[in-house]
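Here is one chain, start to finish.
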Amino acid sequence: MTLRAATAADLGAIMALERASFPRDAWSEAMMREELDSPHGWYVVDEEAGRLVGYAGLRAVRNAKDADVQTITIAEASRGRGRGRTLLRALLDEAGRRGVEDVFLEVRADNPVAQALYTSEGFLEIGRKPRYYQPDDVDAVVMKLDLRGRLGGRASAAGETPRISADAGQGTDAAALRSPDPWSSAGGACT
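Its structure:
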C-alpha cells in the first residue's frame, strides 16, 4: 500500500475507478478535474504494484474551521484490508494540518460497513438528507467528527499531528463513500 497526493496525471485512473464504483452516478471527468485542481481540495491515491486501487478527497477551504470528506473509493478487489481506514485517516491528518475543527461527511443509509468505519473513527450521526443519492432515492446519513478531540488523543508529546504509515488501519473499508456532487456538501446544509 502506497499513499501519495493525487495529481492531474491520475485523472484517467481515478475516473476508471469512479465509473466502476459508481456506475449510476459517477462524477463527470470535468467535475473530478476541478476537484483535483481546486486549492480547497486535497486528494490522495492508494497504489499497489503501480496500479491505482483507491482514492479519497477532502474539501477544506483555507482558514475555515470545517471540512468535508468528499469521497473515499476502493477497488472492489482491494476492499476489506484497511485501505479505506488508511485513506480516511490521511484525510483527517490533512484536515488537522489545515486547522480544521469539525469534519463532515455524507454516507449512504444503505451502506452499514462504511457507517461502522466512520463511527469507529469518532464520527457521530447528526442528521439525514432524504433521497440524497440519486437516481437510487437513498437517504444520506450526515456525520460529524470533532477533529480537535480526535487529534488531542492522537497527538504526540510535541503536539504534532501524527503521520499515517502505509500499512496502518486494519479492518473495515469504506468502499464507496462520497458526496453525489463535489459542490453539494461544501458549505452546504451539513456545515
